[in-house]
Amino acid sequence: MTKEEKGVVIEELFQKFSENNNFYITDASGMSVAQTTALRRLCFEKGIEYKVFKNTLIQKALLKMDADYAPFDEKVLKGFSGIMFSGEDANSPAKLIKEFRKKSGFKSPMLKGASIDTDLFIGEENLDMLSSLKSKAELIGEVIGLLQSPAKNVISGLKGAGGKLAGILQTLSEREN
């Protein structure tokens, strides 16, 4: 790969990192061609972009970012590195990794590190926690549900009380007659 080609790849990676607040760095070494193809197919079906890059190119692209990705240098950017870009859904790559492992019975890909809105998670031990993160849409739905709940209680209380009040008034008017 020439110096110009490397520059183009670094710029492409920088653009990807700038456009995607959430990305996962994985290690899929030891996987067969069939397993790698199955992983790529599953990523495509789930709308997750998966590419393999040289660690030095990833490192140079991350250096251009405003956030501090220095912890990735020592622990994450070693060996085989594939990057999963998930866009808005922070937990979808973690769920995909778990789903792929369950289907294939293989222990790869391994989570090396993840960046969720510039918060860094390093190591395989974070996979369960990352997969249980709620998406933006799920959080908005919960907030809307919580905001609607008190209003629904007030309305149902007024409806119920209004019916009882009308019944009491009708009974009192009937007694007077």
Automatic annotation (TrEMBL):
Source organism superkingdom: Bacteria
One of the GO biological process terms: translation
Any Gene Ontology CC annotation: ribosome
InterPro entries xrefs: Ribosomal_uL10 (IPR001790), Ribosomal_uL10-like_sf (IPR043141), Ribosomal_uL10_bac (IPR022973), Ribosomal_uL10_bac_type (IPR047865)
Record-stated family: Belongs to the universal ribosomal protein uL10 family.
Subunit structure as annotated in this protein's UniProt entry: Part of the ribosomal stalk of the 50S ribosomal subunit. The N-terminus interacts with L11 and the large rRNA to form the base of the stalk. The C-terminus forms an elongated spine to which L12 dimers bind in a sequential fashion forming a multimeric L10(L12)X complex.
Name of the protein: Large ribosomal subunit protein uL10
Source species of the chain: Roseivirga echinicomitans
